[in-house]
Amino acid sequence: MFLVLLIVGIVSAARIKRSPVSEDADATVLNQDLILNGDGSYSFNYETSNGIKAAQRSEDGINVKGEFSYRGVDGNEYQVSYVADERGFQPRGAHLPLEPPAPDYVIEMLEDLRATNNEDFDLAALDAAIARLKATHAAA
User: Minimal CA–CA distance to 55: which of 90, 78, 82?
Assistant: First the structure.
């Protein structure tokens, strides 16, 4: 029995293929720049030998704008631009899905809520949500 298990183990081990080593493992940094300011603002960018490029900047150290690109396994180049602020991370790219249009009744409900000027609500965030949802109609 031991001999059978040993043979099965050896045959199984011989059949296991090792994953191919990624070409990205040998990538090197071609360009890199970083600026850090005392007021919290910063910017950076870099480019690698395997085609990855990225840049990001912030005027206040909190709200961020940036972009990056890379070549996918399918050979296509993918580009993403983004904003990261009080509304979260908001990426945009031709390959990314878009938010579906918001129903009119949802926008009307939020506008009615905004019209009450209730101090319990963050009115700036409510204005931003209304603007974002209205933009889904323009994109559709």
Answer: 82
Question: CA 136 → CA 15, 23, 28, distances in Å?
Answer: 52, 40, 40
> Is residue 64 predicted with pLDDT exceeding 70?
yes
Q: How far is CA 9 from CA 2, 15, 52, 90, in A?
A: 10, 10, 41, 50
Planar angle of CA 86, 98, 54, nearest 5 degrees: 65
Any idea how long the chain is?
140
Summarised one tens digit per residue, pLDDT across range 91-100 is 999 999 888 8
The arithmetic mean of pLDDT across residues 52-64, rounded, is 96
Best-predicted range by mean pLDDT among 8-22, 37-51, 122-136? 37-51
Q: Look at the block and give the residue holding tokens 């040998």.
A: 26
Query: 26-33 long-range CB contacts below 8 Å, 24 or more apart?
Result: 27/52
